[in-house]
């Protein structure tokens, strides 16, 4: 591997979370300046969340810089305090720094607009796209990475894929307490204006350390780690799973499904075609197709669709652009028959149930133990005692134990706000009444 | 005027600057929910500034809510402490509250995408559009305002127009120290991650008071007002006039000018037409045309233009989307001949000077005295002594005196970064050398 | 009850936590200006904690103002949103405002210097003293309160005593989530420079409400309440129970015990007498005696004791003033015999065990259910659903459930740092070796 | 000079301003642990200011750590970016690091309680005492410094004395923009809860650099430096010169003068003697005498004086402890005759003018040019252009120019609040009336 060049003078980017992002390597500056990376400026970090928390309009661009910066500081801290003396001593080998920094910077390069929703409809996967963009020889990112060595792009991709041999590097970027999560919790808390995501990053960055098994934490820092777990849990419950943002997400889903439906039924004229979406409708997407997508493009199609003849497409596009979310109630998994009934009443009231109702279940696992048989085995959080022995976090934190291995979230049924109208003044009196009679305390009865 | 309805329970919106935005009136909630107001979510507050300060991706939507909230708190403070007892006593008449709140909320409703640049090219004016949107009977905003009274839209528009009879209301929304400026300074400082815009809003909101001549400040608060003036000055120098953001603004200007040029020269095929921009190219714009515009639409056109045959359009579109700003040097007003020469060398080096060079002068007047003969007479800031006598701010603050009546900013000449290339390895050796020989310490020699 | 006078103009005190403390009532201003309340400036809020967190030098004075301010804002919020319409409707009766404000302001008036330590040695009790100072006719506080009505002092005292009939007032000042705790968590977090104590006060102040049973919270605010419980738990574990601060507390305890011992053994000459402490040595303390005490007085005695003939008193005084804390190890309750042995080795090494070793156990109950048979029954936290039904917090929060009814803390054995010296170079070789052999990983073996 | 030992593992102290104070050298840790340095915990940073801003109870201990930390970071930044290559190149010679750190840490070691007031009365000088404590062989500080080399204490003292040969080291600790001022502005702003002292430390720490003439700043950072100058100006006007804090300072002055007066007139009995103050009354002070003094001792004497027979001493002690400041009015220098008259009326109203009235003039020079003929020549602030040329700050900043060489502050006359009483109900009717008649708008007429 060629020794990478340093900038003659460090560059800094002002950042509200980390104060300054420090760029010291030519290659990092070059990666930031690629069209692929600049595209992230046009993709919101939190999708429809800004419809609930209007301050949260930040992009994935800023987040990626933040993950890079945390990783950079951790490498510097490791190099200063835990430099490897000989192979296999479990300490930090600074020749890993560059692959860690590149993986940190690029870990979200494969995100598209409103990823969660978009991936679900069009069967794309942002992690797979991240690896593809890194390893595809036509991207500028790939070309810059290849300057380090021919294998370097694949190495960076393997960190994201978690197959890179050094577990320290993998866990810095992707584990239950990694640079990615640490940045997004602080950043999303700052931009939403809530405080749930605040935790003591400075303290965590002092108790973190490399170890043979990967990344561990000095036991004195237990409460700082515990606090981070709780912060993440709170952000999921309070911000990421907010029912109103999900109500907008449902509108978005239905809108894209309607467009796909119209395309598949040949109901769009040539001038109405959303050309840059067609590869996705057809499920034949090149890297180039993928990189054209951003929030701006989707919203511009929605803007244009306001004029299209299809009334459902027009209506859903306006609901999205004008922020008129679907409403919701919670329900229990054993109430699925009743949901079917609710959908029928909605349909009878003039709303095609396929495009005007939805089930949205949002659950997160705040913390989990390592289980080799799990679909995605988690690296558990280990605390290191004075004599080097490790303790798994939930064995000494009752709070983490309470959250461990236990999904948190809710099941929600979404429908148009109009279903709450006064039945008596309405053509669909009986159906509206039946619908409304099954709701109490915002839950399905 | 019909007494406006209160919400049965106050609604709040979380805001990073003001903690909560409090909505108490039905009409305010309805205005926020109009398509015209929701459109502001799709227009960045600071245009190209986020290319320099990546955190500053906030929209005009959030700012407008902030201006509303400051105004709401001030009305509440005035009503509690300075309620008018009889006509003409110079105290606060709370029947002015609603017009003030609506004007505050809607004061930027006429902003389009990248206003500064866009207005300059297409001769639009956001203040005129604000008034037009408020008073045009087809907008939802107008319809909601008319529920108060038939004259209410015109009254709200007249506050923005500064012709509303009550000077207190006008100055709350628009003066040298108004709710607009107070919100944007704090908000832009927060989102850029700088601290220059911070000032003591809480203190100012305690020393502000109504007076016969409009809005004045208790003299004890002089230093808080002074600090605000300095903060604003600093934000202009450090953030709003940043040479790199202006380098992106220049790219944007040239890009839109090129598109207009191609349109006017009939060089665009039918499928290439940016249909929603044509009314602007033709200078025949309806309210409906205007409200279709947003940042998303413009950037999507730029995205599409990357594929168009015209090489200049393609190149400029990529420079904008991929953030490759023009570079700049400062110059003095008497160096215009030399600028012409620099443009010639640029042209000779392969860049059409019309679309690849620009002059950009940014100046602001941090504070000014009232001058009835000025083009836009300023309401000067008055401080009230214990006995009611008023003192103009700059008479007691040497700092404000130093800034008063004196424009601050610079003259810059912009050109492609390629003009900095090594001349020796280049076809355009002589011109590049001549060009570069006239630059020293980032200034024209 | 006489209607209390309002100040002609509200006064404000700048406060780093609440921005401004607003004083609106003459009686509140008068109470703040009493010598008894001003004395709180001379008593640190966190005692020996500032020896660990050097930023935490704030006084009880600031905290008491903060508790007052939170209470004031809550009363205002209740009055605006939940005004009682008729007796017994469970809503807020604003005639309770003044008693609530006075109790909030005065709830800590009975604190002495280093209360925890001091009370333990001299069998005083700050809550009893608070009531005594309020009800003793000779204090200025009592005289001011009596201006409201002859019964008013007793009413205020009964709020602190929790016997006041209105449970809303009692719980505002004293419950598992009260104005006292809310202020000290935020304030101590700010001054220590940690973030563990941060929680979302603004959100809690929107979901709190009066109810027939006292104070409850809207169920939508569950996570904000949960976050507060976790913050408090974290502050106890990370800040209040810090082993080094407790090491200073132990030095302080031993120092005061030595002084008392010398007094009781008539070993102090007349000029050496700490006159203002004698009433405490004798356990005959008047209100006047009590109010002379403050941190300044104690530390000045320590300063003087540096010159006294008794070597133990001199040594302990210097250890305290020069910040040389005792060291500690954790132990398990069943290791008491071994502790006795450790004390013997310490004694053999030249340190009188009575004055140079100590056991310090610090435990807190983060949350508990109401138990009528408990020594101090807790008012549990209730969440109110849309239909008015109440849910106890731990039934819906797994985190709170994990912390509920379960004490957290540790047992520590304290001894001089000198016990860690190298035994080989030491007269007390055998005892030091034996002592040190029983310590591993900072715990007793 | 012996190469100083590094700690095996860096220690950190939590700090609200700088997050962590990093201690890396054995000698720095040892200095912090001396009794002389720990004494600074018992001396408030802002003296009587906490009577106005109740949050500002922080000590000189925390400030000294902060100055040390800023200096440490600057040395690290200089070493990384501007390491000296050969003697006299004007870059940073890292062998200066330790003397800079020690001088930073110890620069305020000679402060006594309420320095400003105390020094004025007893003709002590904290800078002289700082040097004496450092160079006196009996102090622990001196003994620790001598471990580096026999000359090291004198070198550290010469930095404080500004005679140390390297101007970079001197200016880091003491200049118009030094580590001392940078820390106290931020710290005092944080603890008072005001924002005037906030400036962009991070930015300044990026543009600062060593130069042959000392410390200079990159010209790009001009506005950050300008902002710092304005912040400092604002803190003086808004916080440090607050009339109420000065009203308490006047009470303190009079109280100490009265005690000295009684001592000099042999009016104190043996048991009443404030023994530890006698050396100051006699002006025969040893280092040991000096180091016994702290805020605690003074306030304890005041506490005891409440019982002394002298009515003036008792009264002034109570005014101070109970926070009853003298009131004030501004006056102009040419009104001295009238002041004499005001004093006479005060005397006639029952208050000995010598102990109940005072003139207090507070002025600060926000910025000044270098003037070799000045009493204390200032090192002016120089900005460095790309080509190395220096520009003096006020030549390019109109704000700094406005403040340059111009003292800001006011003249105030202080007297007891009782002089504002209603004359009609008073024995001293005529004098009170005359007194009051000369006051208008809080100024002398």
Nutshell version of this structure?
The first copy, chain A, is an alpha+beta fold and about 450 residues long. Chain A has 21 helices and eleven strands. In chain A, a hairpin with a 3-residue loop joins strand 1 and strand 2.
Question: Can you characterise this structure?
Answer:
Four copies of one chain form a homotetramer. Chain A is an alpha+beta fold. Chain A folds into three domains: 6-241, Hypothetical protein af1432 (Orthogonal Bundle); 243-323, Up-down Bundle (Growth Hormone, Chain: A), CATH 1.20.1250.30; 326-366 and 409-445, Growth Hormone, Chain: A (Up-down Bundle). Chain A has 21 helices and eleven strands. Chain A has a four-stranded mixed beta sheet. Chain A has a three-stranded antiparallel beta sheet with strand order 5-9-6, sandwiched between helices. Chain A has a two-stranded antiparallel sheet with strand order 1-2. Chain A is globular, with a radius of gyration of 24 Å. The C-D interface holds C 13-17, 19, 33-35, 38-39, 41-42, 50, 53-55, 57-59, 61-62, 65, 190-194, 276, 292, 294-297, 299-300, 303, 318, 321-324 and D 13-17, 19, 33-35, 38-39, 41-42, 50, 53-55, 57-59, 61-62, 65, 190-194, 292, 294-297, 299-300, 303, 318, 321-324.
């Amino acid at each position: 591997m060629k020794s990478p060049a340093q900038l003659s003078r460090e560059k800094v980017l002002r950042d509200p979370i980390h104060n300054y992002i420090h760029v010291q390597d030519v290659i990092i500056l070059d990666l930031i300046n690629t069209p692929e990376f600049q595209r992230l400026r046009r993709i919101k970090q939190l999708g429809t969340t800004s419809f609930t928390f209007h301050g949260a309009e930040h992009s994935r661009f800023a987040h990626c810089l933040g993950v890079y910066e945390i990783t950079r500081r951790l490498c510097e801290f490791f190099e200063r305090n835990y430099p490897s003396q000989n192979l296999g001593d479990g300490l930090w080998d600074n020749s890993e720094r560059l692959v860690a920094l590149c993986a940190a910077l690029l870990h979200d390069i494969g995100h598209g607009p409103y990823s969660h929703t978009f991936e679900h409809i069009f069967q794309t996967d942002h992690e797979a796209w991240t690896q593809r963009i890194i390893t595809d020889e036509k991207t500028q990112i790939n070309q810059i990475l290849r300057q380090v060595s021919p294998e370097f792009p694949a190495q960076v991709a393997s960190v994201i894929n978690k197959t890179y041999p050094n577990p320290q590097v993998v866990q810095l970027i992707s584990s239950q307490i990694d640079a990615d999560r640490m940045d997004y919790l602080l950043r999303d808390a700052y931009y939403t204006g809530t405080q749930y995501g605040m935790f003591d990053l400075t303290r965590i960055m002092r108790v973190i350390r490399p170890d043979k098994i990967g990344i561990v934490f000095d036991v004195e820092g237990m409460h700082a780690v515990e606090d981070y777990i709780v912060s993440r849990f709170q952000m999921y419950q309070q911000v990421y799973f907010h029912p109103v943002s999900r109500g907008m997400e449902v509108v978005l889903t239905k809108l894209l499904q309607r467009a796909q439906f119209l395309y598949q039924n040949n109901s769009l004229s040539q001038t109405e075609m959303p050309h840059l979406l067609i590869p996705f409708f057809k499920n034949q997407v090149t890297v180039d197709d993928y990189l054209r997508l951003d929030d701006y493009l989707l919203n511009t199609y929605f803007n244009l669709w306001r004029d299209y003849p299809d009334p459902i497409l027009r209506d859903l596009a306006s609901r999205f652009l004008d922020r008129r979310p679907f409403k919701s109630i919670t329900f229990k998994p054993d109430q699925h028959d009743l949901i079917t009934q609710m959908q029928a009443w909605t349909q009878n009231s003039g709303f095609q149930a396929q495009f005007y109702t939805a089930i949205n279940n949002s659950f997160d696992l705040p913390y989990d133990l390592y289980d080799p048989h799990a679909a995605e085995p988690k690296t558990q959080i280990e605390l290191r005692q004075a004599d080097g022995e490790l303790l798994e976090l939930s064995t000494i934190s009752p709070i983490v134990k309470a959250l461990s291995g236990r999904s948190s979230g809710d099941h929600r049924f979404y429908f148009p706000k109009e279903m709450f109208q006064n039945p008596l003044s309405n053509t669909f009196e009986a159906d509206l009444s039946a619908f409304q009679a099954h709701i109490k305390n915002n839950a399905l009865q």
